[in-house]
Amino acid sequence: MFNNINDDFIPETPEEFILVRAAELARTNVNAAMDTIRDSMPSDFSKNRLNYLKELNHIFVREQEEKMNRLERFIFKTRDWPESFPDCTPALRRAVNRWVKQEFSRTSGAKCLILIGPSGTGKTSFAKSLRGYYNYFDGQWRLDIWKNFTSYSIFDNIDWDEFEEKGFPNKKHILTQYGYFKVPHETGVLIEIKCTQPAIVLLNQGLHEGQLGRPPITYEEERETMFWKEHAIIYRMGKYAFLLM
Fold first, then answer.
1. 126: nearest Cα among 57, 38, 200, 46
2. Crossing angle for the helix pair 30-40 and 14-26, nearest 10 degrees?
3. What's the number of domains the chain is made of?
4. Kindly report the CA angle at 231 between 225 and 234, in degrees rounded to 5?
5. Within a domain: 81
């Protein structure tokens, strides 16, 4: 549908003008592009909604990748790890250093880093200070801001036990570099994303940690505990901080 539409393409039919406009909109807003096609060509839209969504989403991702490449040499972070984490104890510094060294650059099989601690201690500033671009989700999932090409992903202020109930993909997929899998778009269509980024999860102590803060009782809880011991580095901040491997 959009294969031949580029900067040199000259539309001739009403349908081509609509598709050119939709392609322009998709560079920054896929939903607006979909609305344009739906309102202007309702019959064709109803037959090809899934194809339109896939192709417009591809246009959006490609534009974001090109934008990142153009801006890369102009963007810098004012504070880097470990200076970005002012309340970092020696034990926490060692744990994070080990995670950065052993897991951060991996594209498969990396353990996610889960930091559990009081608010206002610099967890978010630390997470945003690592090298490269990141996906950042503060309390809610938004497929429209997910980028396949980022270096890592940050999940902040999300109740561990309600992760999927908040609309997020299965945490055993999104936090463990599961690769390609499908997630629902708000239109109801399933969109495939690629998850090869390591993940950082930031939980407020006593508020968001859920099952991670309770000893397992049932068989299912025991299995969950063993899974995350294998696939995550869990660090509890505070006076009696300890590291779970």
1. 200
2. 160
3. 2
4. 70
5. no
Question: Does residue 6 fall inside a structural domain?
Answer: no
Q: pLDDT per residue over 221-240, tens digit each?
A: 999 999 999 999 999 886 44
Burial 81-111 (b: 16+ CB within 10 A, else e): beebbeebeeebeebbeebbeebbeeeeebb
Task: Please tell me the pTM assigned to this model.
Answer: 0.70
DSSP state of 214: S
Is the domain of 49 the same as that of 141? no
Instruction: List CB contacts of 36: < 8 A, sequence separation 6 or more.
Output: 18, 21, 22, 25
Same domain, 97 and 217: yes
Token output for 237 = 């901040």
> Do 133 and 225 belong together in one domain?
yes
Position 153 confidence tier, pLDDT thresholds 50, 70, 90: very high
In-domain check, residue 85 = no
Q: What share of the chain is helix, strand, coil (3-state, %, to 5)?
A: 40, 15, 40
pLDDT at site 81: 63
Rounded-to-integer distance, Cα 123 and Cα 25, Å: 36
Pairing label, strands 112-117, 199-204:
parallel
Q: Give 120's pLDDT tier (boundaries 50, 70, 90).
A: confident
